[in-house]
Each structure stands twice: as structure tokens, then as C-alpha cells.
Amino acid sequence: MDIFSLGRQVALVTGAGSGIGQRLAIGLAEAGADVACFDLPDSPGIAATVAAIQAHGCRAIALAGNVTQADDLVSAVAEAEAALGPLDLAVNCAGIANAAPAEEMPLAQWQRMLDINLTGVFLSCQAEAKVMLPRKRGAIVNIASMSGSIVNRGILQAHYNTSKAGVVHLSKSLAMEWVEQGLRVNSVSPGYTSTPMNLRPEVAEQVKRFESETPMGRMAAVDEMVGPVVFLLSRAASFVTGVDLLVDGGFECW
Ligand code: NAP
Fold it and tell me: What distance in angstroms lies between residue 2's CA and the mean position of ligand 1's atoms?
């Protein structure tokens, strides 16, 4: 099924040092892509991501920066292209999560969430599209969340939910702005997923609730995000743009 191949393509993945972003960066290489792996400068996991990609016989580089800084992203795209070639694909996955009651949430906590989870995705898309648009080809997947369209019972994260709703609609808006220039933009919205964030002993009880609330009775493995993202980036999705693909084990059906 060559239409799913990402062979001979160059990708940039943000948040590639941990969790879903790390697995996706490796997954794109499994589909044949060379991958530039972007994360915060002190990312403990980025070297392992690069090593895993190289073990698949693909090229990879580590890029350090902050998605809230436009210059970091412009430099990262330039470095990626200098090392690997013209950028074809991007997955914008960097994000944070935390919680606080809305009526007490300090403005700084709200603002930091929006800066990283929403403005960070906008700035990433902007830097990536700048090089893709003149070539009239490219595909971008932004990682949103089912929290962009539902409210997680018992989790006080109005700022997070709002940021993810923004990512879904930002992706649709950019898809339409760039549809005539050959660029596709979609989002993937994971449900509860086993990442370092959800594997800590102190959230063990909360995780049991995540599992029982999910129709499939479990959280997603990070591996289960690879297929949907590779599909949306690949030629198999050549007529798919402006879509939010839920990968939630049926959560939104209940
Ligand atoms: P994770 O393991 O914490 O990975 C997030 C990565 O983003 C980390 O490597 C983190 O770096 C990096 N990052 C954070 N702030 C950044 C910044 N300002 N600039 C550059 N990189 C930054 O989390 P995850 O669970 O894999 O989540 C990945 C994405 O999936 C997020 O957008 C999240 O909202 C979304 N998502 C997750 C779930 C879930 O259940 N896990 C469900 C739905 C959606 P550090 O670790 O160094 O801080």
C-alpha cells in the first residue's frame, strides 16, 4: 500500500522528546520519512527519539527551541531544511496540561496554557507554511484533544479545553486559507492516552476513571496515534483537509 508511504519525505515534529510526539516522530520514520525532532532545549528524551529514527535507517536531527517563540520555529525549519532537505510534512504536538478551578486560576496560568497549546501551534504552522506554500505542497497535522469538543468530567481545565478547541478550529481555518496552494491541514484529537503524564503513581486512581469512562475500557497506547497521523500526512489522504480525526476509543459516542 504505497499510498500510505512517507518515503523520501522530510518531516518536522514538535514535542518530539516525550509521549505522543516522540512516538509519532518514530512512527513517521517507520513510514519512511526523515524527521527533524523539535523540543525544549533541556528535553531529556530527544536524543532517544533521534537514535530510534536512525535505527530505522532514516535521517534525524534534534532541534531545540520553544514553540512560543516565532524565531525559534523559523530557525528550526531552516535548520531542518539545511540538514534534511525541503520540508514536506509537519506534526505539531508540543503541549502542556494542568488544572485549577476557573474562578481562582491566575491569569498567568491561563495565558501560559494558551501561549503554548494554541499560539504555539499557530506559530509552528506559520513557520512551516512559509516554506511549503511557495512549493505548493505539504501536509500538516496538529495534535488537539477530545477535550477540544467535550469537557472531561471532574478535571478543572477550562484553559486546556479552550486551547484545544482553538487548535481544532485553527486547523480548519488554515486548511481553508491554504487549500488553493496545495497545503493540507488537519487535526488529530486523542482521547486518554498512556504517556508519562498519565503513568505517574499519584494519578493511578484518576486513570482508572479514564479507563472506565472510555467505551473501549482502556486508555490509548501512543502506538495507536501513529496510523491516524501517518494516514492524514500521506497520499492516501490527498482529498482530506480541514478534518478533526477523533482517536478516542469511542469516548464521544457516550
Ligand atoms: P508529554 O509527554 O508531556 O509531551 C509533550 C512534549 O511537549 C514534551 O516533550 C514537552 O517538553 C514538550 N513541550 C512542552 N512545552 C513546550 C514548549 N513551550 N516548546 C516546545 N516543546 C514543549 O505529553 P503528551 O501526553 O505526549 O501530549 C502530547 C500532546 O498530545 C499535547 O498537545 C497534549 O495536549 C495532547 N494530548 C494528550 C493526551 C493524553 O492523554 N496524554 C490526550 C489528548 C491530547 P518537556 O517534557 O521538556 O516539558
Answer: 31
Q: 145 C-alpha vs ligand 1 centroid, how far in Å?
A: 11
Nine cell digits for residue 198? 498519565
Q: Give 47-79 pLDDT, tens digit per residue.
A: 999 999 999 999 999 999 999 999 999 999 999
Confidence check: pLDDT of 6 > 90: yes
What is the sign, positive or negative, of the torsion defined by CA atoms of 218, 195, 241, 237?
A: negative
Residue with cell 472506565: 212
Question: Torsion-angle region of residue 27: left (phi > 0), alpha (psi -120 to 50) or beta?
Answer: alpha
Whether 160 sits among the annotated catalytic residues: the reply is yes
Tens of pLDDT along 117-176? 999 999 999 999 999 999 999 999 999 999 999 999 989 999 999 999 999 999 999 999
The rounded Å distance from CA 99 to ligand 1 centre is 15
Instruction: Say if residues 144 and 193 touch (Cβ distance below 8 Å).
Output: no
97 lines ligand 1 (CB under 6 A): yes
Largest CA distance in the chain: 52
CATH number for the domain formed by residue range(s) 2-247: 3.40.50.720
pLDDT, position 161:
98
- DSSP-derived 3-state class of residue 124: helix
**How confident is residue 197, by pLDDT bands cut at 50, 70 and 90?**
confident
Q: Which residues of 48-83 are buried (b: 16+ CB within 10 A; e: fewer)?
A: ebbebbeebebbbbbbbbbbeeeebbbebbebbeee
Minimum-distance ligand 1 atom for the alpha carbon of 43: 47
Tell me which residue has cell 482521547.
Answer: 191
Alpha-carbon span 90 to 142, nearest angstrom: 8
